[in-house]
Write a structure and sequence with these properties.
By secondary structure, the chain is α+β, with helices and mostly antiparallel strands. Helix 3 runs antiparallel to helix 4.
């Protein structure tokens, strides 16, 4: 992830290559220069029990790659497969653009950016599931 800039709020925590880093009392900006660093804002992490929907499961796979809890190659393949399966369900142009972005970032092994793209689908999925139950 060459050139990634993280802007952290006071006391915000982030996981970088397995180390939890907590910001101090003021806002901070961190430049990540190491290519392929695994980065996860802990506020963006979801608990395994919350990964119950198709999008949240794919999001969780991406999270596991970033935390180093899954073999990188196996996780990469699972993530691509999961995104492909989501593309069979989300037909609207905006969702397709999000999935294309997630795919491109995954292919580039830029998992933090793929995670950000997938996060955009979570509210859409919630609306669809709520409409289905109504």
């Amino acid at each position: 992830m060459t050139g990634l800039i993280l802007k952290l709020a006071p006391s915000e925590r982030v996981l970088i290559n397995g180390a939890v880093i907590e910001n101090g009392d003021r806002r901070a900006k961190i430049s990540i220069r190491t290519p392929n660093a695994n980065i996860l804002r802990l506020k963006d992490a979801i608990h395994p029990d919350k990964a119950r929907t198709p999008v949240s499961r794919v999001y969780y796979i991406c999270q596991l790659i970033l935390t180093g809890e899954v073999d990188p190659e196996e996780g990469h393949q699972q993530l691509l497969l999961g995104i492909e399966q989501l593309s069979q369900v989300f037909y609207d142009r905006d969702s397709r653009a999000i999935l294309t972005g997630a795919t491109n970032h995954t292919l580039a092994r830029s998992y933090y950016h793929a995670l950000k793209q997938l996060r955009e689908l979570l509210p859409r999925e919630a609306r669809l599931l709520a409409a289905k139950q109504a």
